[in-house]
Known about the structure:
391 residues, 13 helices
Amino acid sequence: MRTQVGIIGAGPAGLLLSHLLHLEGIESVVLEDRSRSYVENRIRAGVLEQVTVDLLNDAGLGGRMRREGLVHDGIEIAFSGVRHRIDFRELTGGKAVTVYGQHEVVKDMIAARLAAGGQILFETRATAFAGIDTTRPRIAFEHESGTGAVECDFVAACDGFHGVGRPAMAHRLQVFERRYPFGWLGILAESPPPSDELIYASHESGFALYSMRTPEMARLYLQCDPDDDIANWPDARIWAELHMRLDDGERALLQEGSVLQKGITPMRSFVVEPMQEGRLFLAGDAAHIVPPTGAKGMNLAVGDVFVLARAIADHVRTGRSERLHAYSQTCLRRIWKAQRFSWWMTSMLHLFPGATPFERRVQLAELDYVTGSPAASKALAENYVGLPFES
Ligand code: APR
Ligand code: PHB
């Protein structure tokens, strides 16, 4: 099989890359290990930055997002029993974020690719690469009925944190990593919203987050031990902890409803440099992970493939390689700013095991400053709605 760009992974990174290349008249084939229904139903992040929303609209992918996505003009930050609002529109000159599940974005992208005759090979696992340092790289794959190969001009490994792209260039990568001494227990629950906006709470029992997927469906998170077993968390214990951390004192904010999904995720910050070797490019979670506190994961994946699609298109049109050579450097400037923001939000809002009373007082002072000072609120808002894509 021959194509111009071989893409591994049908997550937001791989699918959007394939679509953006198609808009430039460039052919690609997407290889995805899992089934279509698996990737379309995998519950992940849900906050789209303004720049992501603008890009999806410009690329013709925004129809359902505009109808069904929930536009949020701000967030609330709760600490010491009081909620404080950060008004994004006012602080950023009119920008906002949109709450729209990552799996909905994935569904829209798959539908658009298939409608345009795009090739996505589901249940097809990339296994090895050859000729990465040549102009004719190959991806070997296997699926139920046997093995095969994609010959292409470029390979984009958009295959997530556990993919095959990053290990293939491991020998030349520098790894930057921070693990946090806590995880997030997340649930999806039939619970109508007590607030129109997300609530990030720094409570003496630990962090909690109120988020949503639809006007009837809440997405709720609790800071927990990263090694805790979900079996230790029956629904009643989860609700009790959520009430304690998110309710307004004695007034119940949350309405309990059936819990449809639950799981524990560890938190880490992770970046590899560079994100390219020869004609193999890493994009999205394959190259970096952020703790979810800043809601940046999917947005970073989008930023990477925006840069990569332009670089490949420039090469195909003009034969010039400057943008391709600059790919890592261009992406990493924005990635590191999002890493900083995610690390900062995480550090400010969570209880660190073993923190001294002095450290907790400093944390509370920072929360007071961020919510009380227009300059500090503006810095949070500017990062939360998304810094511009690098060009
Ligand atoms: N062959 C084919 N497909 C593979 C392989 C392989 N060897 N390895 C992994 N994949 C697929 C996975 O099944 C997955 O569907 O690659 C896809 C990677 O998609 P994502 O994990 O969604 O990664 P990405 O597109 O970078 O999106 C980043 O996902 O984890 C969230 O919070 C993160 O929102 C961020 C987003
Ligand atoms: C989510 O809705 O899943 C969500 C929202 C905000 C975050 C992280 C996750 O910071």
